[in-house]
Amino acid sequence: MPELRSGAQRGLRSNKVDNIQAADPVGSPAVPTPRGRAGRRGSAAVGRVNKAAAKGRGGLAPKHKGKRLKAIDLQTALPCKNLPEAVAGEAVISTAQEDLCLSKAADRAASLRMDGDSADKFAVADDDPTATPVPERVQVGNSPEYLTSRKLGKGGFGQVFVGKRVSGGSSRMGPDANEVALKFEHRSSKGCNYAPPYEWQVYQTLNGCYGIPSVHYKGRQGDYYILVMDMLGSSLWDLWNSVGQAMSPHMVACIAVEAISILEKLHSKGYVHGDVKPENFLLGQPGSPDEKKLFLIDLGLASKWKEAASGKHVQYEQRPDVFRGTIRYASVHAHLGRTGSRRDDLESLAYTLIFLIRGRLPWQGYQGDNKSFLVCKKKMATSPEILCCFCPAPFKHFLEMVTNMKFDEEPNYPKLISLFDGLIEGPASRPIRIDGALKVGQKRGRTLANLEDDEQPKKKVRLGSPATQWISVYNARRPMKQRYHYNVADSRLHQHIEKGNQDGLYISSVASSANFWALIMDAGTGFCSQVYELSQVFLHKEWITEQWEKNYYITAIAGAINGSSLVVMSKGTPYTQQSYKVSESFPYKWINKKWKEGFQVTSMATAGNRWGVVMSRNSGYSTQVVELDFLYPSEGIHHRWETGYRITSTAATPDQAAFILSIPKRKPMDETQETLRTSAFPSNHVKEKWVKNLYISSICYGRTVC
């Protein structure tokens, strides 16, 4: 039987620490299941408006020792006004309807995505019978006149045809070529939006870049924006199919070193490609001097990794509702909606190389609305040893290096290329030219041994074993009394809460592990009254609505594996309006919509794989961001800390961990914050933190990495 443990902190003036140990009987009172939509599976959004605004608490925390951060000039937001009850009811209905519309739109988008297709890119003119046919003759930007011939294929935003020169032309490549590739994009497509395609800007910057096909002319004709480019040969996808859907390690090693060289040149221009895959690597025309030369095409998803003016790396961001790339080959960071950087191109290249050797990746075959979620989860769970079990060792080493890179880290391209030296044979037997890799080798002028000697040990970014742990967050506070209880059965909750209330403590945070509860109670909440409910359903709508009518607001929630929940509601909060949502997946789109309406996340919890998120108006935060990961987003949290954010809510399922980070409107004197991950409840660590005036501000139990 689990053991109940409790602890209390009375502040620095008292040396006494409560440490009560007793066995809690296992058992839970019978709680009737409520009727209504809140008790059903699926998504539900609920909101309320208070009849009278609660008074906010003012004052700054006194100065203490701890980590100091540079002050940030924050503009105080205008106070939120109360809305009449009728408006609140209308807003709730609107929220539910909009959530349903968003869900249906996501379903339609997911149904369009295939395993190897780009999620953000859909062809327009080719499949739309109402679209204008492509011109039969093309002449743009002082180009020669071309006849539009056979179709070569279609990309995300457009389609490509052979263009045959009407007269003249004496070469196979260049502006005087007899045949060229014509890329058509309809002016109403996503890539154009009635303006020249974004891809044009990228090609203009990269024109002449090693491994990027040349653009000779561009312009608009009728309803289409047209690029006139060099004609190339087969893609690696076509080549892979022609050799029995499995390439030799020798050939793939040649592809690897040349692809790394091309990406290095592309990255040196300040761009990342964003959609590295076999279909986007093409060879030169058969029979031409470039027939064994590799080219990288389709820059529609390219983005800048550094700012043009300053040369600094772009800022880190995460938008979990944004995915760019191709599901099969996309990096884990792309799945999670993080800003693209150089590491993402290299991770996609690693999956491409392994696919060309193995003929299949472990995450192929997933279908359904949550396909991207399942693929990302599988990528995170598949170790390099398993993924590369049929590949020579250099491919495993390459995968380990690129998946361990930091967001703004500069790749060591020479070292990555040198990994494959032992697999590449003499020039006469090379199926792919490696001109770019040879130039890199000449420039580096150092052996692999020297490169390894110079390498300093660094903290792993993503590698590690998935684990289920307690995640606790500590904030610097002036000395106060705080108490914790864990392994608490349903039947013992009332006893601990009542005793805490008698001692002037209110619940500040709750969590659950193995269907037992953890309580954090302290004297620094500012609450004047508190109620709670244990329910057999996850967030009991009727009870919450009833307490809202009494001017209580949700201040802490927790869910158990069996689907039950503990909801704590308090008086004395600054909140003026509140809404919550229960969802089968992390509801980022709903959160983003509520942010625009002036709400901020104030509580989160999970029950099994279901998420519950509470958002409030007048929360005291000026802005918020989300960090979501299948492991523990240590790198993302540290990036946010550096820009003034602090963790204000946490929750985790067996698969994912989510953190809400906020910037307060009133900056505290001491911004010190620490996080801790432990297999057991951190009772001993909590006492050590108390000595340093660090108190638990949030706690949850779920997915991390060790």
Automatic annotation (TrEMBL):
Stored PROSITE patterns: PROTEIN_KINASE_ATP, PROTEIN_KINASE_DOM, PROTEIN_KINASE_ST
Family of this protein: Belongs to the protein kinase superfamily. CK1 Ser/Thr protein kinase family. Casein kinase I subfamily.
Chain spans, region Disordered: 1-65
Entry keyword annotation includes Cell inner membrane: no
Keywords of this entry: ATP-binding, Kinase, Nucleotide-binding, Transferase
Enzyme Commission identifier(s): 2.7.11.1
Bias (Low complexity) ranges: 29-49
Domain Protein kinase: 146-424
Name listed for the protein in its UniProt record: non-specific serine/threonine protein kinase
MF terms (GO), sorted A to Z: ATP binding; protein serine/threonine kinase activity
InterPro entries for the chain: CK1_Ser-Thr_kinase (IPR050235), DUF7477 (IPR055900), Kinase-like_dom_sf (IPR011009), Prot_kinase_dom (IPR000719), Protein_kinase_ATP_BS (IPR017441), Ser/Thr_kinase_AS (IPR008271)
Pfam family, any one: Pkinase
Keyword DNA damage: no
Residues that bind ATP: 183
